[in-house]
Amino acid sequence: MSEPADSIAAEQSWRTRMSRSTPPRPVDIEAVFRALTAHRRTATRLHPRPGVPRAEDVGTVLTPQPEPPVAGRVECVPTPCVLHPEQVVEHQYLGLLGDDLQEQIAEWEESLLGDEDADDTEDGPDSTAPASYASYAEYEAATAAARAAEPDEIDYMSDLSLAPGWKVGGYASWHLTDPAPVDCPRCATSMPPLLTVDTGECDGGSRSWLPLEDDADDPGVIDPVGTYLGRGQMRIHICPTDPTHPHRLTFQ
To answer: Is residue 6 a part of any domain in this protein?
Structure first.
């Protein structure tokens, strides 16, 4: 193909339409660590759910949306969804906090597990032989079931810092690689994420972010859009100084 292919319009939302409610965080982390007040940022979770938006909800489409002749692979084409935006507060990725604060958070998390570890010691070691699974899907299902049977643990990375799923704004996660600078190629200003495209809305480690209105066993809640970009997550970064500067993409 000699001519550039059209892009697929993936998301259009309005900040005024809030119809999902994430449960309150299990701990007011800023009350525990006052230093985190300098590392908070608002994000808008989009909560896509399968469906076709009504014309009266969409209003005026911002630009014409031609159909691309080639999409590359099916995981690049989002399933039609209705958005249910909700604003939440995020805190900086753990690895980008100061060393002292990281150590304090690690010690605090260990203190929360102290009683549970003592109970496990009293019960004795688990001698059950490791199970084998016919497929990775079976392994994931068994892992999810085991997590559901365990008492809830509070973890900064999973429960108190970054919201999972599609979102506008907030912070970037670097869970697969070391943190890397994302600076504007034109003016060298640090570029925050504008849009995060995620392969799922939550997993076993981030179920505390599941909206009160949703069911964790509903596939339309966990993976409503059906996209898989990069290694599961793509972010679009823009320059806060001048949005006409070239954007950048990062993947996790």
So the answer is: no
pLDDT tens, residue by residue, 39-58 = 999 999 999 999 887 767 66
pLDDT in tens, 122-152: 555 554 556 688 887 778 778 777 766 665 6
Contact 204, 144 (CB under 8 A): yes
Q: Is 64:9 a contact under the CB 8 Å cutoff?
A: no
Q: Is 224 left (phi over 0), alpha (psi -120 to 50) or beta?
A: alpha
Helix, strand, coil content of the chain in percent (nearest 5): 30, 15, 55
Evaluate whether residue 206 is within a structural domain. yes
Q: What is the pLDDT of residue 69?
A: 75
Q: For 23, what's the count of Cα atoms within 13 Å in the CB-facing half-sphere?
A: 13
Three state DSSP letters for 104-152 = HHHHHHHHHHHHHHHHHHHHCCCCCCCCCCCCHHHHHHHHHHHHHHCCC
Residue 53 lies in a domain: yes
Q: Are 182 and 239 contacting, i.e. CB atoms less than 8 angstroms apart?
A: no
**Residue 127 resides in a domain:** no
Nearest CA among 1, 11, 15, 30 for reference residue 92: 30
Number of domains the chain contains? 1
Q: What's the domain range around 69?
A: 29-111+135-251
Report pLDDT for 36: 98
Which residues lie below 8 Å from residue 69, measured CB to CB, with a gap of 6+? Answer: 1, 5, 6
Q: What is the pLDDT of residue 17?
A: 54
What whole-number distance in Å separates Cα of residue 200 and Cα of residue 207? 12
